[in-house]
Amino acid sequence: MRLLTIILFTGFECFFISCRPSEKPESGNRLPNIVLIYADDLGYGDLSSYGMTNVKTPNIDRIANEGLKFSNAHTSSATCTPSRFSMLTGSYAWRKKGTGVARGNAAMIIEPGRETIASVLKRAGYNTGVVGKWHLGLGPDGGPDWNKEIKPGPKEIGFDYSFLIPATGDRVPCVYVENYKIVGLDPNDPIEVSYGKPIGDEPTGKDHPELLKMKHSHGHNNTIINGIGRIGYMTGGQAARWVDEDMADVITGKAIDFIEKQGDDPFFLYFSTHDIHVPRVPHSRFVGKSGMGPRGDAIVQLDWCTGEIINTLDKLGLTENTLVIFTSDNGPVLDDGYQDDAVIKVNGHKPAGVLRGGKYSAFDAGTRIPLIVRWPGNVPVGNSDALVSQVDFLASLATFSNQQFDRNDAGDSQNQLDVLLGNNKTGRDHVIESARALSIIKGDWKYIEPNNGARYNKYVDIELGNDTIPQLYNLKNDIREQNNVAEHNPEKTKELADLLNQVVAKGGRQ
Ligand code: NG6
Ligand code: CA
After folding, report:
1. I need a surface site. Which of 105, 308, 327, 379 has the fewest CB within 10 A?
2. Is 231 in the pocket of ligand 1 (CB under 6 A)?
């Protein structure tokens, strides 16, 4: 089997070499499709294939059982916007101002024309689509006029099709944007959005908590939409507002439509789920299924969404010819601003598995995430402990599709295709992760740069990993980052600090 895989893969590569770079392959030599499933806030321990025992995730586990499961994979940031920026552009978000968690009315953060995974794959002849959570801003400087054409957007960075939750489920505007337009917007009921002064006369969670079906615990007390207080104020657009309970069905349906509409060209689908971000309001058929409250039920729903995509590939006979990548944007959090029982019903479950910290944290639970790659017959079944970063998806998929890419734009992205396809078990020399502080992992060691951020966030109950002194952990002996051994290992500390500074110096930091 392994030999067959090597022969097949070598044959595949030979075909690529015979192609000129940046040239659309001739028909008949169809490149494999690529489906990238990006979960939100899903922790290292939140899948049964990654050790969760409270709830089963059979569909995601199926991908793991038929593919390669990584134990040492990293997103480049402990929050959403910067992770997505880095993954799509191949450039660390901390190099560019304005890439922190974006407001719902933020302007487009990735500059139009900038190299992205989508622009690279489009050049290779792929039909490219993004469905689900965006959270990378839309529209010109100053943000979009929601009632007109909402552009620039995904199209300007290489996506032929988009169906978006513009920011997050907990941020206004609570509407879907398909290509350049809000879906179902009545021109007589225009939308206005504000992240400053309250607008409109609709009740807020702050003033009318009695109207809430899910109460906030911190933040999330502005305009009430569908019985849930949001971040930000909105008015108008009544007919276009989403129903949170239907969101997984709606976006999964759009993702399936995209796959089903494909013709002879290969396709790239970036399916960015809302689950398991707050507000966790799964469809009634998933309510109570996990015994862990809405957070666990959202995991069950996420697994269902994934199953629908995988089953669609089966149904269309595309499974063998599709590279599926499943991963998450940052680590887990229980109470992220709503009283949804995530804490009291956790029932012994460890969302981050063995790791310390969580979402927002420089400790590894913030950024070490599940990663599964499946391409039957080409990617070996099993596990890999290679050091991997999502920032390398761009260069790796460029190699996969025989494309050159703009290295000025995507300067942090390395071709790690061999690692992602299981032909190399070593991976990167080092990875950089970012929270408030930058960290670097090299071999067994992790260094967190000193900084004066808070050590603990009491609202989310997460240790943030900040300290004013340098931190050095030996992840091999101490994966929970309990013992800071920097003082006893000054040479190793200096080596990693110097290496981190070199990477920073290479492309700047803002
Ligand atoms: C925080 C929100 C949190 C979540 C996060 C972004 C509050 C109090 N907290 O500011 O609920 O929305 O931003 O999450 O407002 S992310 O996964 O999209 O990065
Ligand atoms: Ca997230």
Report:
1. 308
2. yes
Residues of the chain with pLDDT under 70: 1-28
**35 in a domain, yes or no?**
yes
Task: Please tell me whether the overall predicted TM-score, pTM, comes out greater than 0.70 for this model.
Answer: yes
Helix, strand or coil, per DSSP, at residue 80: helix
Give the residue from 313, 244, 340 showing the smallest Cα distance to 283.
244
Which domain does 110 fall in, by range? 6-191+236-317+327-333+372-420
Measured from the Cβ of residue 66, the count of other Cβ atoms closer than 10 Å reads 16
> Ligand 2 centroid to 38 CA: how many Å?
10
Say yes or no: CB of residue 337 within 6 Å of ligand 1.
yes
In a domain, 454, yes or no: no
Does any domain span residue 451? no
Closest CA to 92 of 409, 327, 398: 409
Atom of ligand 1 nearest to the CA of 167: 18
Using the mean position of ligand 2's atoms as its centre, give its distance from the Cα of residue 387 in Å: 21
Q: Is 135 in the pocket of ligand 1 (CB under 6 A)?
A: yes
pLDDT score of 21 = 38
Q: How far apart are alpha carbons 493 and 306 in whole angstroms?
A: 41
CB atoms closer than 10 angstroms to residue 180: 17
User: Best substitution site from 329, 336, 369 to test ligand 1's pocket, by max atoms within 8 Å of Cβ?
Assistant: 336
Tens of pLDDT, residues 281-331: 999 999 999 999 999 999 999 999 999 999 999 999 999 999 999 999 999
Q: Give me the CATH number covering residue 284.
A: 3.40.720.10
- The string of pLDDT tens digits covering residues 366-405 is 999 999 999 999 999 999 999 999 999 999 999 999 999 9
